[in-house]
């Protein structure tokens, strides 16, 4: 199972690297600038994410496969599962050691490895929700990150207002197979 997940991770990494090269730096900057957090914060978040992944890679490369991480405004969301409490603590320790991290949202589960069927179901739920958010004209989907672990959906990012946040959560709850929705959205304030 771990071999299959490793292969999938490598394929996705190579595919996304190629897409990034084609899209170009200018387009990536345009996307970052259109997010509620702004270009400067997006660059800072990308640096935090890169340093975090490098620290994990040096400690245990398997974490790159079993744990998903998202960074928005210095807030780090961790989802996925590990096999031991010690691995869980090591991940948290390394995450907090990265400069610029001001909050760690720990949604890591300590459990036995998941089978391929669970992985496929979770991927289907995530894809379906991302699609719904993208095509809802009342949601600025670029500000949202979605992940699913054991049919629990994690929604992370910045909502422009309460109505947008509620719409995003309702979309997640409406997907067949979703057991629970965990909301880690921040609502934009006038000071933002």
If you had to describe this structure to a student in words, what would you say it looks like?
The chain has 192 residues and is α/β, with parallel strands linked by helices. The protein has 6 helices and 6 strands; from the N terminus they run αααββαβαββαβ. A 3-stranded mixed β-sheet has the order 1-2-3. Strands 4-5-6 form a 3-stranded mixed β-sheet. Strand 5, helix 6 and strand 6 form a beta-alpha-beta unit. Helix 1 packs antiparallel against helix 2. The longest helix has 33 residues. The N terminus is likely disordered.
Estimate percent helicity: 40-55%
Q: What spatial order of strands do you see in the largest sheet?
A: 1-2-3
Q: What count of helical segments does DSSP give?
A: 6
Q: Overall pLDDT, averaged?
A: 84
Shape type: globular
What string gives the helices and strands in order?
HHHEEHEHEEHE
Largest sheet: 3 strands, mixed
Number of strands: 6
């Amino acid at each position: 199972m771990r071999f299959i997940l490793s292969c999938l991770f490598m394929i996705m990494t190579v595919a996304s690297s190629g897409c990034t090269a084609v899209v170009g730096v200018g387009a990536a900057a345009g996307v970052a600038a259109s997010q509620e957090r702004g270009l400067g914060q997006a660059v800072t978040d990308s640096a935090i994410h890169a340093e975090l992944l490098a620290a994990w890679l040096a400690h245990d490369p398997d974490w790159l496969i079993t744990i998903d991480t998202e960074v928005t405004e210095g807030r780090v969301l961790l989802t996925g599962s590990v096999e031991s409490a010690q691995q869980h603590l090591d991940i948290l320790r390394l995450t907090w050691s990265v400069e610029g991290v001001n909050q760690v949202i720990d949604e890591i589960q300590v459990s036995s490895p998941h089978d391929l069927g669970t992985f496929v179901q979770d991927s289907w739920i995530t894809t379906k929700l991302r699609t719904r958010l993208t095509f809802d004209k009342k949601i600025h989907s670029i500000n949202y990150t979605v992940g699913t672990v054991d049919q629990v959906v994690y929604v992370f990012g910045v909502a422009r207002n309460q109505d947008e946040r509620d719409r995003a959560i309702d979309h997640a709850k409406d997907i067949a197979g979703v057991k629970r929705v965990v909301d880690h959205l921040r609502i934009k304030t006038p000071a933002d």
